[in-house]
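Sanity check

After download, print the first record. It should look like this:
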Amino acid sequence: MQISETVALVTGGASGLGEATVRTLAAAGGRVVILDRPGSLGDGLAAELGERALFAPADVTSDGEVAAAVARAVERFGTVHVAVNCAGVGAAMRTVTKDGPMPLEIFKKVVEINLVGTFNVTRLAAAQMAKNEPNADGERGVVINTASAAAFDGQIGQAAYSASKGGVVGITLPIARDLASLGIRVMTIAPGTFDTPMLAMLPEPARQALAANIPFPSRLGRPQEFAALARHIVENAYLNGETIRLDGALRMPPR
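Expected structure tokens:
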């Protein structure tokens, strides 16, 4: 699938991995719909990118809001060919602390946003993709989800986050099989430790310590590297039903 011929919906598109993906796809000639929370920087990013970009504020867990964002994409650009799910949250808490068990609401919220939100966007975007005319390879669309190295190597305090990201890995193949007859591919990227706004808040010694655990290259991942892989997935028609670790050979220690 040629980027210049696509309309891409990117969740969490106003910052971090999502923003890098939006910029990369727009620079390659694609049209991009930035789906992020109201009050995010999505409006400013869309204004910067110009007529090829649209900000569609929405909560990824909301059926109605995501459906409205897809409808806005169709109204502005005609359809949706690509969905990149980057929206997500984290939580660091042990299952049992000195104050008692982890509040169940924390676990449920992380799973709802990271896993249920990913499925919600996938199902609604794919329903629109199914209406597209297939290209020469028979493709109608591509879905790219974001998991994490924590899906495989969850650390102390990451039960909720690891469960949500492990779920994203787990749904990749069955959804790819579900959508195969429609000509829609489904892939997942599992990033390691990336230099995102969340990590930017850490003191430099802490950032250096994180980078030291990565075998090679011994540095934090760059959002542009995530975006480059997302672009390649869109362009490589034989990638389907798989999770790709993007982590510099990192295997996360217990803490």
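If your output differs, re-run the checksum step. Summary of this record's structure: Helices lie at 16-27, 42-49, 63-77, 104-129, 159-179, 197-200, 204-212, 223-235.
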